[in-house]
Amino acid sequence: MDAPRHPRLRRLGEEAVIVEFAPALTDAANRAALAFRAAVEAAAWDGVAETSVTLKSALVRFDPDRLPHAEIEARLSDLLAARDWQGAELPPGRTLWHIPAAFGGAAGPQLAEVADLVGAPEAALLEELAAHRLRVLTIGFAPGQPYLGRLPHRWDIPRQSGLTPRVPRGAVVTAIRQIVLFTVETQTGWRQIGLSAFEGFRPGAGRPFPLSVGDEVAFEPVTAEALARWQARAREGELAARSEAIA
Predict the structure, then answer these.
(1) Residue 1 lies in a domain
(2) Is 104:48 a contact under the CB 8 Å cutoff?
(3) Residue 1: its pLDDT value, please?
(4) Which of 63, 87, 111 finishes a domain?
(5) What is the pLDDT of residues 116-172, one digit of tens each?
(6) Residue numbers in the chain where pLDDT is lower than 50
(7) How many CB atoms sit inside 10 A of residue 174's CB?
């Protein structure tokens, strides 16, 4: 059987269509999904209820009573044909977040293991991480939880064979060239290399989810003492990060 061609439309139940740009995550596919989602938002079609982005797809949820399947699929097909989405620019209005985090020691108990898997000294690994602005590829698994990437190829390490029973909120974990910044305390199969005071889910705030897909994150390594100060400020309601608009 021939592999499906991309991009392609896939129905998801009675009220949604997925626009898939690749069979697996690539930088071009994620950029295409972000740009395409922004174009659908800008079109402001009556009957579209929600849009979102996965690692390699854009999802469009709609009201079939106001916008029948055939019509939404025709509009999406026309929009797909309008340009080369794989080469599209990322949409405007994105934010760069500078997030302090402590790495190694109690804050990152598996940093040495990751360094061994990557084949680099811990210091070189952290220098490389700090030098990369990581895109919010998608948000999921837990409220406001970002999947960030992608890191250089040598960071393409597998998930663990078992689960770590608990990592705290703010944990910086890694696998498969990505970083996840946990927004809740939970178990994980990814390895914890650091800890931040950043809260990606703030249910009592005016903006519960600070990060948006397409934003970028730059980690700033700090000492354990500096992290403790950030944690104290976070407990007072301060968002433990600096932000700036991406030009």
Answers:
(1) no
(2) no
(3) 52
(4) 87
(5) 999 999 999 999 999 999 999 999 999 999 999 999 999 999 999 999 999 999 999
(6) none
(7) 27
- Domains contained in the chain, number: 2
Last residue of a domain, one of 71, 87, 103: 87
What are the structure tokens assigned to 228, written together?
Answer: 């403790």
Cα–Cα distances (Å) from 62 to 16, 19, 20, 76, 137, in that order, read 6, 14, 17, 12, 23
Nearest to 70 by CA among 47, 41, 50: 47
191 lies in a domain? Answer: yes
pLDDT at 2: 56
User: Residue 50 domain-assigned?
Assistant: yes
Q: What's the whole-model pTM score?
A: 0.94
